[in-house]
Structures are given as structure tokens and as C-alpha cells.
Amino acid sequence: MYEPIRTKSVHSPADDAGFPHRTREEELDIQLASHLAALLAVTDELDLALMGDRISEQVARLRGAPPARHAGRSDVPTAALHRRAHALASRALVVAASRADTAVAILAAEAMDAHTAALSGSTAPAALVGTP
């Protein structure tokens, strides 16, 4: 009634494909480093040197090399940058929690608090956003 399958299924595992596979942990490391690098760019644009240095340390730890720092400034309003930074920090927090990286999770939560405080008009803790 049914003809047997004569070719290899397209749904079979690609174990014989000849390219390297990454583990879940490696994929999460790459994703987390990417979120932190994007957060670093916005943090540098906001001129938050101390927080930028802390984020840079974590990116260097995850990637094995220090990240490039953002040098230019854009005409984006400060409030929009704080909202973008808050969103990036929340993404980093989710990935850090899934890979159980406590240091990055704490840093991301602190960054979220600082950007929320900046958006609400209250002052953010000087230890987080001040210049060294």
C-alpha cells in the first residue's frame, strides 16, 4: 500500500554534516555577550562610565576579549536611550537567569533600576551611574 522511503529524510539529525555544533551553554554565552555589548553601546552613549566599565568586564569574561567601546554620540533623546538600555538590560537578565550567571543577573537588575530611576526623574544610585 505504501512505498518504502528510499532516500534519507530531511528531518534526520545533521550529525554527519561536518560542521561544529555548539552546546546550549555556548549559545547562551554568545547571546548574553551580545545583549551586554548592545547595552554597553547605549550605556557609553549615555556617558555612564562606571556602569559601562562593569558591563565591559562581563563582556570580556564571556567573549574572552575586551569589547569595542562606543565612541560616537547620536541625536537620540536621553529618555529614548534610557528606555532602550532598560529593554536591553531586561533581555540580558533573562538570559543570565537561564544560564545561572549571578554576576550578570545582578548587574542587569542594577542597570534596570538605574534606567528606571532616570526615566522617572529620581536620581539613580551614584555607585551605578557615576563616573569613576
Structural summary, described in words:
- This protein is an all-alpha fold and about 130 residues long.
- It has 5 helices and no strands.
- It starts with about 25 loop residues before the first helix and ends with a helix.
- Helix 1 packs antiparallel against helix 3.
- The mean pLDDT is about 85.
Descriptors:
single chain, 132 residues, elongated, mainly alpha
Rounded radius of gyration (Å): 20 Å
Largest sheet data: none
What's the total helix number? 5
Tell me the series of helices and strands, N- to C-terminal: HHHHH
Model regions low in confidence, pLDDT < 50 over at least 5 residues: none
Envelope shape: elongated
Describe the secondary-structure layout.
Elements (H helix, E strand, L loop, with lengths): L23 H22 L3 H15 L14 H21 L3 H19 L5 H4 L3
Helix pairs in contact: 1-2, 1-3, 2-4, 3-4
Provide a quick synopsis of the model:
With 132 residues, the chain is mostly helical.
